[in-house]
Amino acid sequence: MLILKAISVLLDYPTEQLVAARDELDQAIASAREISPAQRGALHALLVLICDQDLMDGQEHYGALFGRGRSLSLLLFEHVHGESRDRGQAMVDMLAQYEEAGFAIGIKELPDYIPLYLEFLSTRDAMEAREGLADVAHLLALLASRLEERESAYAGCFRALLQIAGAEPQRAVEAVRAQVAAEVRDDSLEALDKLWEEEAVDFLKAEQQDRCPSMASGPGKAREESAIPLHWVDFKQEGAAVEAVQEARHV
User: Fold this and answer.
1) Phi, psi of 96 (to 5 degrees)
2) Is the pTM of this model over 0.70?
3) How far apart are CA 154 and CA 107, in angstroms?
4) In whole angstroms, what is the distance from residue 217 CA to residue 229 CA?
5) How far is CA 30 from CA 50, 79, 241, in A?
6) Can you tell me whether residue 75 is helix, strand or coil?
7) Please, what is the angle between helix 2-11 and helix 22-30, to 10°?
8) What are phi and psi of 113, to 5 degrees?
9) For 102-151, what is each residue's pLDDT tens digit?
10) How many beta carbons lie within 10 A of that of residue 203, not counting itself?
11) Strand, helix or coil at 217?
12) What are the beta bridge partners of residue 113?
C-alpha cells in the first residue's frame, strides 16, 4: 500500500531527501484511493508546508513538536507501556515480527517508531496493513486529536491512517476529544525537567541489563539524535514492485 509509505516519509524527520522526493510523494498521495479527497488534500497541504518552508525551520519545528514530552511521541510503546519493563519485551516481539516478514531495520532504529511501522505495513498486503493500523487505532485517534489541539498540519497523517484502518476519522477523533482536552500539556521546559528527575535513575537501573539494542537513550529519541531518513526508495519503482507482488499472490 504505497500511501502508507508516503505517510511514513511525511511523518519522519524532514530532510533534503524528502524535499527532493516532493513530486513522487505528491503523485503517491494523489493516486491513493484508500483515502478520501479530503484526506488527500490534508496530506498534500502538509507536503507543501514541509517543502516550502526553510528546511532548518522545519526540522526545528518537528523536534519541538514530536521530541518534547510523551503525548506526541512517535514511539507506539511509549503510549502503551511507558518506561515499564514490558516495553523491552514488546520491542523484542516486534523485531521478531519484522524479521519473520524479512523486513530488516537498522541497529539504531526503534521497531515501534511509527514511520518505521508504517513502512513495514506498506510492504504487507492490504488486509494485513489495515489490521495492523486497526490494532493501534485508539492511539492514532489520540495523536490526531492532540495535534489538532496544537493546530498542527501533521494531524492529517493520523486522520488518513484512521480511514485506512476502517474507522471514520471525525468520529474517532471526537471520541477522545474530552480526554485530550483534560490532559495537561507535557512539552513545557518545566514538565520536561520533572520527567527527567522522576525517571533518570530508576529507569536506567531497572533496564540497563536487558534493554533492547534499539531502545532510545531518552524520552522521544527515536534514533538517538540521528536525522537519518527511512529506507528511501524510488516511489515509481516501489509502486511497480508492490503491483508485482500483488499479482504474484493471485497467480
Assistant:
1) -65, -40
2) yes
3) 27
4) 19
5) 17, 31, 19
6) strand
7) 130
8) -65, 120
9) 998 887 788 889 999 999 999 999 999 999 999 999 999 999 999 999 99
10) 17
11) coil
12) 75
